[in-house]
Amino acid sequence: MTSKEEIINGMKDAIITYNKAKCLELAKQGITEKVNSLELIQEGLTPAIQELGEKFGRGEIALPYLMVGAEAMQDALNYILETMPKGEYKPKAKMVLGTVKGDIHDLGISIVEAVFQANGIQVYNLGRDNPKEKFVEKAELEEADIIGTSALLTGTMFEQKVVIEYLKKQGLRDKYIYLIGGGACPSSEWCDEIGADGWATDVMLGLDAAKKSLAEKKGIEL
Length: 222
Ligand code: B12
Hints:
By secondary structure, this protein is an alpha/beta fold. It contains nine helices and five strands. It has helices spanning 4-16, 20-32, 37-57, 63-83, 107-118, 132-142, 158-169, 188-194, 203-218, and strands at 93-99, 121-125, 146-150, 177-181, 198-200. It has a five-stranded parallel sheet, sandwiched between helices. The longest helix is centred in the first third of the chain and has 21 residues, at 37-57.
């Protein structure tokens, strides 16, 4: 039997060395050996892809390498997320979630989807690259409580403001809790500036923000 640390460190190494098969194999092993899913994701996959991102940012690796690392994370993540509980009870709240227009980073929102679902929030994941109208149309259609937007690029972060401004223009701002996330907004300043209800660069902090707003604004206790 392999220890939890060996599995987690092995997953990190596999991503950093672009070894997709090894990363998936270790993810499967982690689940078989009952390592907590979130630990596999947050201690194994996430720091590894961040390390590759830093190397990419410093010009030490080219984009195709980052893409292979991201694929390794995606395969392992899909496997782990499939095994997580889906919240087989009546959800207490609904959320429309997606990455903003022009942004294709969608690894983070898959994690948010799985964790929020497991905590009683039905999530409609729109995936990547969504115009403002799509968030609002889906939220209206599903009678959602929360709209969540993700942005990873400095250049797409402004779209988070575009969505909230569109909500205001439609006279719908007060109907929804508006949460923002993703690596492009690592502080509360952007959240305050655009008037969002909460922000997070980590899924568990995001869940806390959602719980707080649901209780305060909708009287829903998760
Ligand atoms: C993986 C990755 C990619 C992959 C994306 C694969 C995919 N399917 O997502 C690929 C290789 C395709 C890619 C492409 C690009 N990338 Co990129 N990428 C990254 C990297 C390394 C990791 C992102 C990631 O997945 N992190 C892990 C997840 C789990 O974290 P997360 O998304 O932040 O999500 C968590 C929280 O934020 C939160 N959360 C997320 N969303 C939400 C929403 C709500 C409502 C809430 C409450 C919480 C929440 O919960 C999540 C789980 O904890 C980052 C570096 C970094 N440190 O972020 C660069 C990075 C974001 N990329 C960057 C760049 C420049 C690009 C490209 C423009 C490169 C190019 N020249 O083409 C393109 C962009 C294309 C586009 N139009 O979007 C830059 C951005 C620089 C900037 N400041 O603008 C970064 C920072 C790398 C760098 N250091 O230069 N990228």
